[in-house]
Amino acid sequence: MNTARNTIMSKFLYQIGCLMACFVFAVPVFSDDENEITGRLTQQLVEDGFENVAVLQAGKELIITYENRRYRDELAAAREVFAGIQAVAREALEVILIPQNRMIPLIAIRAAVNQQRLPANGELSEARLEVNLNPESYWNRIKTLPRANVSTGKLDLVLHPQFNVAFASYNNPVATQFNVAPALQTSLWPGMAFFAQLIIPLQNELEREGDYIRPGLVTINQVLRLPQEVFVSGSLGYFTQERYGLDLDVQKYFFNGRAAIGANFGYTGHASYFKGVWSYSGINHQTMFLNSEMRIPRWDLALRASYGKFLYQDTGWRVDLMRQFREVDFGFFLLRSAAETNTGFYFSVPIFPRKHLAPRRVRIRTADYFSWEYFYKGFPESGTRYQTGNSLNDFMKRLHPDYVNNQIRHSNRWGSLH
Asked: Quick check: helix, strand or coil at residue 393?
């Protein structure tokens, strides 16, 4: 009896031991293979100049987050990431890309790659693409991983071109001004940016102050991403229109970025610099605006409207109609304040080169884009707003979900987006 009982017990313990051995020895083999892919891919992305890189693989799902300050166009950067995946992956994977800006996640690009091989040269069809403004479900799984090639503490010297024009008197119908504005910019912690600009005149036919070297934007900015697609941006420093003080922006997105509402509040004073002397007033002006935006995906068209109190305390509204053509933006606006009606247009075009030097402790590069705005009635005081250089629309780096989808659909492959 005891012998039979011992035999049964021995078989039971043997079976348990076999199951435990299978579990113990199977897991490391699977984990080692994943670690090899994530390690090689991380190294590849860092060598390509990407920052804040983290890679997580769970089975056939691959989550990659990175920050691009190498390529002017974020879609060209994403194409390079997919090409890097092809170089290291041994099988088809479901890939999720999470681009960042200042270590804050922007969107999730999910590519369901179900073929026997990954798409060549980063090629990707729209049918296998899903772009979501809310990356939270993926970001929560990867945000605690250590980052490779951290971006904080690196200093960029960025060269910005500036151009102004005024249609003046009969004797001098066109007056122009050309400047170069080098700027130092860095980030010391997630969401933070420091920007200090110096304006150097090259040619000037406008106001006398334009003949002299003077400060441009000098700001400290902090961006927060809150739940439910809410972004908050706070700026402190010296702005355009010779204003200094505090500015706060809030924006809430709906319907995967197709609509947004927001508000802006500013509390500023006057400050000007001329021939080495600062003149300033106390902080005594408040500006307040309510903003809305609606995007029409088919044409990458954005309709924006704002209403509030302008810099010189006149109230009114402004409506913008803007369209994106790949890396070029072009738009018209209509402005109506208590004092005057004005209209005009603006555009933004890319600046050479499309690929900068890899970020390092100190780097010199050109600005990514040149933007210019024209007012039909010159530069009246009514309807005036200052700029901080920290627009939340710019912070999104053109990565609106519908825009990303359209660029894929209009290109045979991502490689043609350069």
From this structure: helix
57-77 b/e (C-beta count within 10 Å ≥ 16 → b) = beeeebbbbbbbbbbbbbbbb
pLDDT of 304 strictly over 70: yes
Query: Which pLDDT does position 115 carry in this prediction?
Result: 45
Q: What's the CA gap between 102 and 231, in Å, rounded?
A: 13
Distance CA 289, CA 315 (A): 9
Whether the bond into 359 is cis, omega within 30 of 0:
no
Structure tokens belonging to residue 377? 């009635």
149 in the Ramachandran plot: left (φ > 0), alpha (ψ -120 to 50) or beta?
Answer: left
The number of angstroms, rounded, from the C-alpha of 107 to the middle of its chain's C-alpha atoms is 10
**Using one digit for the tens of pLDDT, what is the confidence trace for 146-170?**
999 999 999 999 999 999 988 766 6
Summarised one tens digit per residue, pLDDT across range 378-410 is 766 788 999 999 999 999 999 999 999 988 877
Structure tokens at 160: 């910005």
Q: Check: CB of residue 252 under 8 Å from CB of residue 260.
A: yes
Place of tokens 């319907």: 255
- Does the pLDDT value for residue 26 go beyond 50? no
Predicted confidence at residue 311, as pLDDT, reads 94
Q: What does the block give as tokens for 231?
A: 């972004």
Helical ranges in 256-400 per DSSP H: 392-395
Q: Could you tell me which residue, 63 or 24, shows the higher pLDDT?
A: 63
How far is residue 388 from each of residues 221, 266, 348, 367, 373, measured CA to CA in Å?
A: 9, 10, 17, 16, 15
Q: What's the mean per-residue pLDDT of the chain?
A: 88
> In this structure, what are the phi and psi dihedrals at residue 263, rounded to the nearest 5 degrees?
-145, 150
